[in-house]
Design brief:
Elements lengths: L13 E4 L4 E4 L4 E3 L23 E3 L2 E3 L25 H16 L8 H17 L16 H10 L6 H14 L21
Antiparallel strand pairs: 1-2, 2-3, 4-5
Helix pairs in contact: 1-3
GO molecular function: flavin adenine dinucleotide binding; N,N-dimethylaniline monooxygenase activity; NADP binding
InterPro entries: FAD/NAD-bd_sf, Flavin_mOase-like, FMO-like
Pfam family, one: FMO-like
């Protein structure tokens, strides 16, 4: 059975969904869908975490977190993995886990609580000055690969492979373009530059 994928994150291109499962698009095309998976995003919530309001979630900003991982007041005994998004998720999370493990095993040391807090406040201030809202605190696409490269440097490994970076960048270029509504038409092989 042939599978076709359409992007639910561009629902404004959908004209209507018929009770038969046919999805009609504003450009006049349509597909018969077996499954419609509607993604609404995610909201951070840690109801099980009791930190006396040292760590809070305000408009989807988890903080304060030094480098999106350690709350300065509770580091290194509390750490978060996978908070940043719109970035190479699994490679980033692997690097975060390595960083945390090296800190917990006393092979790496965090800056002082005051230095971590100052760095975090500086980051938040820079977002504010750029007009970036709280709910985009952990949205890292705008910084490309600065964060995972910083993590790789901390743990002493090579940065994320350039080919992975290129594929990721191309994915987001297409995903946020008008071509994104038809995943089945993507020519992924054309993204790969064999000279890298």
């Amino acid at each position: 059975m042939k599978q076709e994928y359409i992007s639910g994150c561009f629902s404004d291109s959908i004209d209507y969904v018929h009770e038969t499962g046919r999805v009609a698009f504003k450009d006049g095309s349509s597909v018969l869908a077996d499954i419609i998976f509607h993604c609404t995003g995610s909201r951070y919530n840690f109801p099980f975490l009791k930190t006396n309001k040292i760590v809070t979630v305000e408009d989807n900003r988890v903080g304060p977190l030094y480098k999106h991982v350690f709350p300065p007041e509770l580091a290194p005994t509390l750490a978060f993995i996978g908070i940043p998004y719109v970035i190479t998720g699994f490679p980033m999370m692997e690097l975060q886990a390595k960083w945390i493990s090296l800190v917990l095993s006393d092979q790496l040391f965090l800056p002082s609580k005051e230095t971590m807090m100052a760095d975090t406040e500086h980051y938040y201030k820079s977002l504010e000055q750029q007009g970036i809202p709280l709910h985009r605190t952990h949205h890292l696409h705008r910084t490309k690969f600065d964060y995972p490269d910083w993590l790789a440097n901390q743990v002493g490994v090579a940065p994320i492979d350039e080919l992975i970076k290129k594929i990721f960048a191309q994915l987001f270029t297409i995903a946020f373009s008008s071509k994104a509504v038809r995943f089945r038409e993507w020519d992924v092989d054309s993204w790969i530059d064999t000279s890298i």
